[in-house]
């Protein structure tokens, strides 16, 4: 992981997100039923899709770590899941605001789409205490990879089960009998989805770059301590097991 292209990626992310927001607020027509409050759809749904894809990508990286033992894949899996959980928080907040505006309640427990995402979110929230409970770093990485694979496989199964269930009040906007979204709304949705996907990728690259830098600093500190410079090794070890870094590279 290097910082090459991060600036260009960040600029592209900002431009696409700005284009999406301009389309949302100034171009796409108002929804016939919900009016202006429906526009939160262009935040809520792309965030949810990106988060779910990120969870599954974390499982793929967990599998690659178990196959190769390369800590890069463990770090990738951790960062993918971490940022997808952050996106999941945004999904729940926007969903609750939309629910309050449309249904008069922040939450409806008999709606399978809402509850299923909450289940997935809470499942991944257990990733952190599960990982931190293991002291040995190699075992920690292996156990976390197994968790990522298992939870990642649960995500599409959960999604398919929800799609087969009879929705109570949650709208279905794709591939409906009425033809789904109009072209203008679909285009706006795709631009917003691309923007949030780019934001996720940008944040992933930024966090991995930070972990690589942290690993390089740790190696340099140990090298200086081996030569008799610097402080005691324990002074730089605080928090080293909180999250994976790339100091082995």
Topology:
Elements: H1 6-26, H2 41-68, H3 71-103, H4 112-125, H5 127-132, H6 137-164, H7 183-226
Beta-strand content bin: under 5%
Radius of gyration, whole Å: 21 Å
Could you say which overall geometry the principal axes of the C-alpha atoms support? Answer: globular
Can you count the beta strands? 0
Number of separate domains: 1
SSE ordering: HHHHHHH
> Which structural class should the secondary elements be placed in?
mainly alpha
Report low-confidence residues grouped into runs of 5 or more.
233-240
Most strands sheet:
none
Report the total helices. Answer: 7
Task: Describe this structure as you would to a colleague.
The chain is mainly alpha-helical. The protein has one domain. 70% of the residues lie in helices and 0% in strands. Helix 2 packs antiparallel against helix 3, helix 3 runs antiparallel to helix 4 and helix 3 packs parallel to helix 6. It starts with 5 loop residues before the first helix and ends in a 23-residue tail after the last helix. The relative contact order is 0.16. About 3% of the residues have low confidence.
